[in-house]
Amino acid sequence: MKRIILIRHGEAEHAEQGLTGGWTESHLSTLGGKQAHVTGGTLANLLDGIDFRLYSSNLARATETARVICGQLGVEPIFESDLREFNNGSAANLTVEEARKIQNPPTQPLVDYVPYPGAENWRQMNERVSRCMERIGEEAPDTAVIITHTLSGTSVVHWWLGLGPDDWGRISYDFAPGSITLLTKNQFGQRTVSRLNDTRHLAAEGCESNVEALPGVEA
After folding, report:
1. Could you tell me which CATH class the domain 3-204 is placed in?
2. Which of 32, 69, 138, 181 is the least crowded, having the fewest Cβ atoms under 10 Å away?
């Protein structure tokens, strides 16, 4: 596999409703549907003549984004539960305020911090996503399109760059809804972040999102 095109799902209704993200089952908003359509058109140009497979988280907001995009690309998505967002346990489907009331006090190292009852920690999420990316790396012929979320998207970049547990708790990235991140190999075979959180295609159509908070965790 030479290239990963990492897409964050379109804007979802939980952001409008003040709910946590994570494993909250949330559908695309009207704006999110438009973002998925615009992103699909951009990918159709970017992937012209390229052999690729498209993989997606199986949470509703990601699967809906994948189906819109795949309809434009003429391919079938491959759904992977291991590409899901951070498992926020008992905080799923709660409002951000409700989630704060059940949040566990932060502990160190941060990579092993379990923020809510029944949640996973950052180490577990990174290991889950990394296992999935190893499988995808063996399957994808040239390029893998990955539709996922903010924190699990961060884990994809960590995997691509070969970052380990010492880095997982101190390095993160921002991904806006509908954004495109391009991970490639350069002429020396080095793994490269060619684009990060690119929303120019959305800005051109006037469908960028406002800043969206992470799923209710306070450090």
Report:
1. alpha beta
2. 138
